[in-house]
Specification:
The protein is an all-alpha fold and about 350 residues long. Helices cover about 75% and strands about 0% of the residues. The protein is globular. This is Iron ABC transporter permease.
Amino acid sequence: METDPHILTQYRRHVGRKRLFVFSLMAAIGLLGTFSITRGPLTLSIPEVYATLLNRFFPDYFSTPGELAIRAIWYMRLPRLLMGLAAGFNLAIAGAVMQPVLRNPLASPFTLGISAGAGFGAALAIIFGKGLGGGVFFVVINAFVFSLLTAMLILGMSRYKGATPGNMVLAGIALSYLFGAGTTVMQYFADSWAVTEVVFWMVGSLGKSTWSSLRFMLPVMLLCIPYLLLKTRDLNVMNTGDDVAVSLGANVRRARLLILMAASILTAITICFTGAIGFIGLVAPHMARMILGGDNRFVVPAAGLVGALLLSASDLVAMNIIPPTVIPIGIMTAFMGVPLFLYLIMKNRSELWR
């Protein structure tokens, strides 16, 4: 049976608008990144920034404003910008796949307790000096291990007969409270300097972004993100319900386990370097769905770009709203995310899953 040319034209226009939105997000990220890298105690123009960047690769053709500009851009601003983009992209994609897999619009790395587990591991390392690994990444490794432990406990529930996606979300909330209580107890008995360090870590920050941390994140991103993007068709099938998905030949239990595992690892490698940045994994996917509809082939990558844009914009505001004080990025994302979170609860936007 031949397809109606009018329907085919309408479909191509529909897909074209979605692609245009994705490309617009990429352009907005490029513009924001170019602007944000010029901001700071040392004011630089956009031509000076590009000259400094190109001088790194073509020193014979481009001159720099000076050694101070090189250090400010290459060792402070550029790693911070790239970490903000990577963290926002990772957390948003993790939230974008967790929500359809668990069929819960409030599912995210934050609400599933993964961030709370990382915070507990970081607090254990900071206050008592107990944990795995050592050296400069001692706290990071401990946070990574405990965030993965939280994810594995939640994923373990999916192996039990009768465990539903809703039960997994409730288990994540329970673990979030448990690890939060444990962190509070440690802070109660800790020295004041340690409490300050834990609080600073819990609210999230991009202030310790380095090229080394980006190199640690890159291999995990290259493994997890392409896998999750390839699974977007499976997410569309799973949105119809487990019974329908099984009738279409999908192995729902296995797919849910692997997708959540990849999303959890992606979350863990992010928050162990940035701290507990909340609401990006919740807000960005819903913003993408409100504009693009429910097709996860477009929603998941678009949510990642929205998350990267939101986190970078929040960091830009955090650095410049009360200069020279830099407000922790987690506070800015909370101010942005709480109103939408409450709106989703009150309105119960179930139509996003149709």
